[in-house]
Design a protein that fits this description.
The complex is a heterodimer of chains A (about 150) and B (about 140).
Chain A (H helix, E strand, L loop, with lengths): L13 E4 L2 H10 L10 H6 L11 H7 L4 H7 L7 E10 L8 E14 L4 E11 L5 E12 L1
Antiparallel strand pairs in A: 1-3, 2-5, 3-4, 4-5
Chain B lengths: L15 E2 L5 H11 L9 H6 L9 H15 L5 E8 L10 E12 L2 E11 L5 E10 L2
Classes of the chains: A alpha+beta (about 150), B alpha+beta (about 140).
Chain lengths: ~150, ~140
């Protein structure tokens, strides 16, 4: 069982730049056909100042943290037993190429379903851009299969 | 832009069907998404962990469902988007994304629609269920 005293624990804030190359590779990987994600002119026509990050890209920003999996292991999570249970995004303002997003991550819950031999850990992340504008929230529920 | 006068509860969004997931898909998505968990790209690791093979990142299918949403409405109108990962998506699965307007409502002084989302494979096995809220203006 993951120690429930970790509930409320915050991770050190981490700032990451939204890179053009990364967004294009993401678009390629998901077979994106909507030009707003790959063509600056199409993005500008929809009112964006630069290529926008697609709706789930915030999760990738959270993975760009160095040694991201070591943070899980430090909590006693065996990576090979880890599954993604739920994911939620709340959107406040767009994220674009060139933005520097600071992620503020906090463990908001740890619970178990012993009958299913499952443990759950909920991580809430606030995303703040370089203008100190709160652009969104992510809620990630991880499942550990025991 | 979406036109509120033409949207009804029960309306379906145009379906998005993706090509079968290959090992290349997962390698590309590992790089593109930054999720380098070896369970998705290294069959030796997956077997040691008790799986028959590597399997797809849940966030790949969530990105596919996201395409259904952003094909239908501009992303600026998207207020929230959530999924529950119901089952593992395997190599060869052909993910089909569907959505349906489940509610038209008013919130924060703007008309909004709630979309029920499903991603399923070619056999109809549901892999993800989800929900999105989109502003209509």
């Amino acid at each position: 069982m993951i120690d429930r005293s970790n509930i409320g624990k915050s991770f050190p804030p981490y700032a990451v730049e939204v890179e053009n190359h990364q967004l294009r590779l993401f678009a390629k990987a998901i077979g994106e056909t909507n030009e707003v994600y790959t063509d600056e002119k199409a993005a500008a026509a929809q009112g964006y100042s630069a290529l926008p990050a697609p709706p789930t890209f915030g999760f990738s920003l959270s993975l760009s943290k160095p040694n991201v999996f070591e943070a899980y292991e430090a909590l006693g999570i065996d990576l090979s037993r880890l599954l993604h249970g739920e994911q939620k995004f709340d959107y406040i303002a767009p994220i674009h190429v060139g933005d520097v997003i600071t992620l503020h991550e906090k463990i908001t819950d740890i619970f178990e379903k012993p009958e299913k031999r499952l443990e759950f850990i909920v991580i809430q992340t606030s995303l703040v851009n370089q203008h100190n504008e709160h652009v969104g929230e992510m809620t990630n529920t991880l499942v550990i299969k025991n | 832009m979406l036109d509120l006068s033409t949207i009804r509860e029960g309306d379906s969004l145009p379906t998005v069907v993706k090509p079968p997931i290959s090992r290349s898909t997962l390698a590309l998505f590992a790089g593109g998404s930054g999720d380098h968990n070896p369970i998705h790209i290294d069959i030796d690791y997956a077997k040691q962990a008790g799986f028959d093979d590597v399997f797809a990142h849940g966030m790949l299918s969530m990105a596919y469902l996201g395409q259904l949403l952003t094909n239908w409405a501009p992303q600026q109108a998207l207020r929230s988007y959530s999924v529950r990962f119901r089952a593992i998506t395997h190599i060869g699965d052909e993910i089909s994304c569907s959505g349906r307007v489940s509610e038209v409502f008013q919130e924060n002084d703007e008309p909004r629609v709630r979309i029920e989302l499903t991603a399923a494979n070619q056999n109809g096995d549901v892999k993800l269920i989800g929900e999105a809220v989109i502003a209509v203006y």
